[in-house]
Amino acid sequence: MQGNISDKEIHFCLQEMEAQAVGLGASDTRIIPTGMISIEEDIVEMCKPPLCDGYGQSANCPPNVMSPKEARTWISDFCAALLFKIDVSPEKLFSPEGLYVFKKVYIIASELETLAVGRGFVLSKGLGAGSCKEVFCSNIPCDALMNHGKCRYPSLARPSMEALGINVFRLARDVGWEIHTILRNSNPLAIPGAMLAGLLLIGLK
Fold first, then answer.
1. Radius of gyration of the chain (CA)
2. Which are the contacts of 12, defined by CB distance < 8 A and separation ≥ 6?
3. 202 - beta bridge partners?
4. Distance between CA 185 and CA 98 in Å, rounded?
5. How far, in Å, CA of 199 to CA of 141, rounded?
6. pLDDT confidence of 6, banded at 50, 70, 90?
């Protein structure tokens, strides 16, 4: 039991979230225990330039989010999680259309969070992929940093898994998904496939 909600109800909710995620455009989903989520300091280091220009530019990017140490404690309080992915061709990911795939991850994470909260899992939280600033506010300053925390897109903007130190590569491989390293200077024609992943953490209280 988790509070007044049974393990059976949690599993039923997660199955509903899986169907919802696929209906919203996810290519695949996995129900996972939170103990499977590896959080590592080195992942946050990759958020710094030159690998990422978003460092310090958003309220949802390092160093403005919880540290990996804090994230480990935070995630341990959730009772289960739903991992979802969107498969995309490397060519599309490297094109201007790639931004819309990132946006779709944020939309799915937001919709799943809203649905889970409506089912009584009131502290559920969705996490995105990449920087929400790049997706929603790429050419303007982050209002949440500049305007006392008042985000332009409060229902959509959120940290990515990587921003908290989650090793998405390890997690994807642990659930049996193929994933390839893609860097800014990668040749998309040399990459077999690409994917973006998001996460819903199920919380009760």
1. 16
2. none
3. 80
4. 15
5. 26
6. confident
Give tens-digit pLDDT for 35-79.
999 999 999 998 888 878 889 999 999 999 999 999 999 999 999
| Structural tokens at position 66 | 């919880």
**Residues 110/158, Cβ–Cβ less than 8 Å:** yes
Residue 2 binned pLDDT confidence (cut-offs 50, 70, 90): very low
* Stretch (H or E) spanning 144: helix 143-146
Paired residues of 60 in beta bridges? none
Identify the helix (H) or strand (E) that includes residue 98.
Answer: helix 98-118
**Cis status, amide bond into 63, omega within 30 of 0:** yes
Domain boundaries, given as residue ranges, for the chain = 7-202
Q: Is 198 helix (H, G, I), strand (E, B) or coil?
A: strand
Q: Which whole-number Å values give the CA distances from 110 to 23, 47, 184, in the listed order? A: 14, 22, 27
Mean pLDDT of the chain: 92
- 87 three-state secondary structure: strand
Whether 160 has a pLDDT exceeding 70, the answer reads yes
The CA angle 177-181-186, to the nearest 5 degrees, is 140
Find out whether 94 and 168 touch, Cβ atoms under 8 Å. no
pLDDT surpasses 60 at 177 = yes
